[in-house]
Write a structure and sequence with these properties.
Length: 386
């Protein structure tokens, strides 16, 4: 008798356990149901089919018009949360900045960037905090020309490596990863921005004329321009600002969630990819007058800047992981542009006019122009032509 009771009790026990776990799942469900709204999805691939064939930031803007400023997309197994309004972007990048301070993972990036021991792709941890602190210190010193200002970032890192005050030791691979950051972060971003700016200047000849007049007035008679002269060029700065509004080099902010949080009444699950559609914010008619027109004057007498406080305009991101190369990027773009506009007059190739220039972006997640920009340059001689 006793022997028969044992299996019976065991089965009852198993049933009881499954009942309790079902109940627990049931209790959790309401929270789960508070995931942000989603479009229709397919088994296995989830929402991937929505992103096929068009540029992701364009598709995501169109979906957001339908599903709202916080959306949940399942791209394969991974949850991606897309934020598309100023209010939500502000809340996510201020109140919840720490919760979404991780970067999105990919095997390619992990290999290229020495197991994420750079700054840009590192998860948010003690190593990132230490390296970022030194990078910011170096950037500030360079600006102010203070201690470290004359030093190369490589010298700084090598010296830091020998220091005994380090919280996390630095290896040679870490240094290589950070140098790689500087190369990748510092070259293609600035050249993409220059490319878009020149294209917009060609499409808007009155803006080109105004920018060239400012430069040629400021440097009247000079045969070369020094880097420090560029600060005078107020209109050129507005032109570059406007170019970054319409063509952010990183259209989708790449963050990931390191702890579950709630925003706009929805749950953002741990490990989800979190992205802010920077491109869509910059062209939202709710925040911008004639958003599809290139008008640098809109930034004149406006307090909107790219320092990460105006959430309709965050080409460099915001919060803890805001771009540390911001000033370098601006200098890297202003100076060569000033030289191109000072020393040359520019024309479109024969048969092309400003109204039929294409402004198509490269397929994928980069913010680059798809087609090469071909222009004819005629030298301008300040002493003769000016
Ligand atoms: C037009 C030029 C550039 C643009 C539009 C740009 C934009 C951005 C954006 C949107 C982020 C992500 C910020 C966030 O998550 O909140 C970022 C991060 C970063 N950028 Fe830039 N960037 C530019 C140039 C540069 C340059 C010149 C450098 C270095 C010399 C650089 C180095 C970095 C690094 C290291 C990070 C990662 C910061 C971190 O994760 O803590 N960037 N950049």
């Amino acid at each position: 008798m006793d022997i028969q009771l044992i299996p019976f009790n065991f089965i009852t026990f198993l049933l009881f356990i499954s009942f309790v776990s079902l109940l627990a799942k049931g209790w959790r469900r309401p929270k789960h149901q508070r995931l942000p709204p989603s479009p229709w999805k397919l088994p296995l691939i989830g929402h991937l089919h929505h992103l096929v064939g068009a540029l992701p930031h364009h598709t995501l803007r169109n979906l957001a018009k339908k599903y709202g400023p916080i959306m949940h997309l399942k791209l394969g197994e991974v949850s991606t949360i897309v934020m598309s309004s100023r209010q939500i972007a502000k809340s996510v990048l201020t109140t919840h900045d720490l919760a979404c301070a991780d970067r999105q993972e990919s095997i390619g990036m992990k290999t290229l960037w020495y197991d994420y021991t750079d700054i840009a792709f590192s998860p948010y941890n003690d190593y990132w905090r230490q390296m970022r602190k030194h990078k910011d210190k170096h950037a500030t010193a360079k600006r102010g020309n203070g201690e470290l200002g004359g030093e190369d970032i490589v010298d700084v890192l090598l010296r830091l490596q020998q220091s005994e005050k380090l919280d996390v030791p630095i290896t040679n691979d870490n240094i290589k990863a950070i140098i790689f950051d500087m190369f990748t972060g510092g070259t293609e971003t600035s050249s993409t921005l220059m490319d878009w700016t020149m294209a917009e200047l060609m499409r808007n000849p009155h803006v080109m004329a105004k920018a060239q007049a400012e430069i040629r007035q400021a440097f009247k008679g000079k045969t070369t321009i020094e880097e420090s002269d560029v600060d005078k060029l107020k209109y050129l700065k507005l032109v570059i600002k406007e170019s970054m509004r319409m063509h952010p080099v990183i259209p989708l902010l790449p963050r990931a969630c390191r702890e579950e949080f709630e925003v706009g009444g929805y749950i953002i699950p741990m490990k989800a990819k979190v992205t802010v559609n920077i491109w869509a914010l910059g062209r939202d008619p709710e925040y911008w007058d004639e958003p599809e027109s290139f008008k640098p004057e809109r930034f004149e007498n406006s307090s909107v800047d790219f320092l990460g406080n105006n959430f309709e305009y965050i080409p460099f991101g915001s919060g803890r992981r805001i771009c540390p190369g911001m000033n370098f990027a601006m200098a890297n773009t202003e100076y060569p542009l000033a030289q191109l506009l000072y020393h040359f007059n520019w024309k479109l190739p024969k048969g092309m006019n400003p109204n039929n220039m294409d402004m198509i972006e490269l397929m994928g997640i980069s913010g680059m122009r798809k087609n090469n920009l071909y222009l004819t340059a005629t030298p301008y001689h300040p002493l003769v032509d000016g």
